[in-house]
């Protein structure tokens, strides 16, 4: 399951998000992220996104949903 803050208006669309955390549950992974509108940059207080290969450990990733 992917949960994205600030993305209600983007339901049913493909967007880029910044993954903020990943939680492994018995049912699978829950991925939490933030939607960043086009032309805006991530807030300075936000951690820099890390890119990892799909299926790797719970390292934050940049993904499309």
Which key phrases capture this entry?
mainly beta; 32% strand; single chain
Descriptive overview:
The chain is mainly beta and about 60 residues long. The chain is about 0% helix and about 30% strand. The protein is built from no helices and 3 strands. The chain has strands at about 1-5, 15-25, 30-35. A 3-stranded mixed sheet has the order 1-3-2, with no helix packed on it. A hairpin with a 2-residue loop joins strand 2 (about 15-25) and strand 3 (about 30-35).
Unreliable stretches: 53-60
Provide the succession of SSEs.
EEE
Helix content: under 10%
- Mean pLDDT score, rounded? 76
> Class by helix and strand content?
mainly beta
Largest sheet geometry:
3 strands, mixed
User: Biggest sheet: strands side by side, in what order?
Assistant: 1-3-2
CA distance, first residue to last residue:
10 Å
Total beta-strand segments: 3
Radius of gyration: 12 Å
Shape: elongated
Quickly count the helices.
0
Roughly what fraction of the amino acids lie in strands?
A: 25-35%
Write the layout of secondary structure elements.
Blueprint: E1 2-5, E2 17-25, E3 28-35
Parallel strand pairs: 1-3
Antiparallel strand pairs: 2-3
Short description:
It is built from no helices and three strands.
């Amino acid at each position: 399951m992917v949960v994205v803050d600030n993305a209600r208006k983007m339901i049913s669309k493909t967007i880029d998000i910044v993954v903020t955390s990943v939680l492994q549950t018995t049912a699978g992974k829950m991925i939490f992220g933030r939607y960043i509108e086009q032309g805006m940059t991530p807030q300075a207080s936000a951690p820099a996104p890390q890119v990892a290969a799909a299926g790797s450990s719970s390292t934050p990733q940049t993904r499309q949903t």
